[in-house]
Amino acid sequence: MTQTCIVVGAGHAAAQLAPSLRQEGWEGNILIISDEPYIPYHRPPLSKALLAGEKNLSEILIRPEAIYEKHNIHFRLSTRVESIQPTEKTIRLHDGEQLAYDKLALCTGSRVRKMPIGAGLAGVHYLRNIQDVEAIKADIHPHARAVIIGGGYIGLETAAVLKKLGLQVTVVEMMDRVLQRVAASEVSEFYTRVHAEEGVRIETGKVVGAIEADPQAQTAHELTPRVLTPRVQQVLCTDNTRYDADLVIIGVGVVPNTELAETAGLAVDNGIVVDELARTEDPHIVAAGDCTNHPNKLLGYRLRLESVPNATDQAKTAAASICGKQKPYCSLPWFWSDQYDMKLQIAGFNQGYDKVVLRGDNQTGRGFVAWYLRAGILLAADCVNRPKEFMLAKQLLSKNLPVTPEQLADESFELKSLLRS
Ligand code: FAD
Fold first, then answer.
1. 363 Cα: distance to centroid of ligand 1 (angstroms)
2. Where are the beta strands (DSSP E) in 178-267?
3. pLDDT band for position 215 (50/70/90)?
4. What number of other Cβ atoms are within 10 A of residue 252's Cβ?
5. CA dist., res. 31 & res. 73, Å (int)
6. What percent of the chain has pLDDT over 90?
7. How many Cα atoms sit within 13 Å of 375 on the Cβ side?
8. How far apart are the C-alpha atoms of 63 and 11, rounded to whole Å?
9. Atom 2 of ligand 1 has which residue's CA nearest to it?
10. Which residues line ligand 1 (CB under 6 A)?
11. CA–CA–CA angle 119, 122, 124 (5° rounding)
């Protein structure tokens, strides 16, 4: 009998897992089920080229449709998987239909963390999928006042794009500095300066308490135009500061989509718990991408990552596991962020750092490296417009090569020489 592998979700992990299954020798059916109406597309451009209008949907597809056809990979789009019955090896869809699987891959990703304020107001947005971008674009007008809640990477990337499009942009951040959760203060200072140079106002230490509507302005509801929705007017902070807003974008993090796994009785702990082979406790179910809590041998601990390279690499491992092969996932985490003319590339994971060393100047110009160390050991590097150092950092970290803080800081020291030794 022909076997069936069902993949839940059609993001970066699914787009890799399905063709990898064929490469690993899976001859059975492959069905990808997604609650979005599109075949897999690159998510990073949503806060970059797609929002800026520099690319359209067909230019951000991860693979052309023909590739899936060639590999006999089928889709059920706009379809939500509601539950898994692991004993029967079936899943139930939102319309009640049941489908049987032999192998199941959970590639459910993550969703935006919602704030308990601003719901239902026209002009208040989140940013996770193509529809979100389209809704934001409909609210973009030159000189409109945009307030972005959250000074993480997505908030700052969005700020950069909106500024380029001619809006007045304010970023409101609860912590003392932007990027506080993910980067050193030297990196935060750098981005705060650059955004100020570009004309973006960054307000830190501001806790948003309410998003208020304009009693005069109402917008026709997009689905039922006769229903008028109140429009956003101001963002109000708990210290009574107010920011006028024609549009608000909330970027306060994501939560992993683990409910399917949880209700199926699988272990969940800030992500679906998998081993280095992307296997859950159920021998017929694997998981990959943003939704997993997985071990990383290079780092020596378990973690959950929100990055494209993680989703892609882990999906390859998951595909191999489905086919009975062992290809442990053991990649160095890396990530990138584009803002204005700056490409930030991050190698490694800076958790637990006790020292930061700079190569180059974060106070002037637009390129430098922040190296993160713990007990003298290199953990990670944030490389702004420094692709050469990024490549070297990846190698130093992957090979665990010794390097001193002085060598990292010294622009005249050839880091490449460490690879040769
Ligand atoms: P996702 O891409 O989230 O895909 C999961 C899919 O599963 C979604 O379509 C979801 O709707 C669907 N789904 C979930 N549950 C169900 C269900 N029950 N039934 C059916 N379908 C379901 N990463 C980087 O490395 N670099 C960047 O510069 C970068 N920029 C980003 C910018 C933005 C605006 C966003 C939103 C993310 C960015 N990321 C970036 C993060 C990156 O996009 C994610 O890490 C990546 O998308 C994870 O892929 P995934 O396949 O695990 O999950």
1. 34
2. 201-203, 208-220, 228-237, 242-244, 247-250, 254-256
3. confident
4. 18
5. 6
6. 95
7. 1
8. 11
9. 11
10. 8-14, 33-36, 43-44, 46-47, 80-81, 107-110, 127-128, 154, 257, 260, 289-290, 306-308, 311, 335-337
11. 60
Ligand 1 centroid to residue 11 C-alpha, Å: 5
Q: Per-residue DSSP letters for 249-318?
A: EE---EEE--HHHHHTT--BSSSEE--TTSB-SSTTEEE-STTEEEEETTTTEEE----HHHHHHHHHHH
Amino acid at 135: A
Of all residues in the chain, the percent with pLDDT exceeding 70 is 97
Q: Model confidence over 231-266: pLDDT tens digits?
A: 999 999 999 999 999 999 999 999 999 999 999 999
Neighbours of 88 (CB within 10 A): 10
Which one-letter DSSP state was computed for residue 41?
A: B
Q: Name the residue at shortest CA distance from atom 18 of ligand 1.
A: 81
Query: Which residue has the least CA distance to atom 45 on ligand 1?
Result: 307
How high is the mean pLDDT of the chain? 96
Inform me whether the pLDDT recorded for 221 exceeds 60.
Answer: no
Give the bridge partners for 181, in sequence order. Answer: none
Mark 2-41 as b/e (b = at least 16 C-beta within 10 Å).
eebbbbbbbbbbbbbbbbbbbebebeeebbbbbbbebbbb
With 0.90 as the threshold, say if the pTM is over it. yes
Which pair of tokens denotes residue 238? 């708990």
- Reported as a pLDDT band with limits 50, 70 and 90, residue 1 is confident
Residue whose CA lies nearest to ligand 1 atom number 33? 44
Residue 284 φ then ψ, to 5°: -105, 0
